Amino acid sequence: SDLSIDKVGTGYSLSATAVNLAGATSATFIISAGAPWGIAPDAGDGQTATVGTAVAIAPTVKVFDANDNPVAGVAVTFAVASGGGTVSLTTPVLTDVNGIAKATVWTLGTTAGPNSLTATSGTLAGSPVTFSATGTAGAATQVAPQAGDGQTATVGTAVAVAPAVIVRDQFRNP
Hints:
Shape: rod-shaped
Structural class: mainly beta
Distance between the termini: 69 Å
Strand order of the largest sheet: 6-14-13-8-10
Helix content: under 10%
Number of helices: 0
Number of strands: 16
């Protein structure tokens, strides 16, 4: 027949019966995950954080076999793809018993705007996985003239260019 078991587990046993024959039951056995087949995002995509700081949820991926069972011990490399910033660890991270690999800390770059990070594992389906985050300007630390500085005008009249200032964070983001 087409008997198959495609989910990882312990304590499985097979029982067989037939007309006019005594039934039989196997000893218990374990079904282990197959070879790694794919990689997918698990958590940490689409976040927003202040520039130069870490995102709140460290990016994680899940590695699985052809039957969607988690696969442990698979090397995954996390790397900053755009926006600057850093990720730790830069050495490959091994998936745990749940098939999860985690970038310990992803710190965004110092320029406000889009940032991205990739998680790569060989030729697995879905590799590389791309995570995105948006860096927002930090607290104001600088105020500087932007327009209208150094003008003169007659008392009671408007200056030719309206005075304006720009407020920036520590990394000069407006």
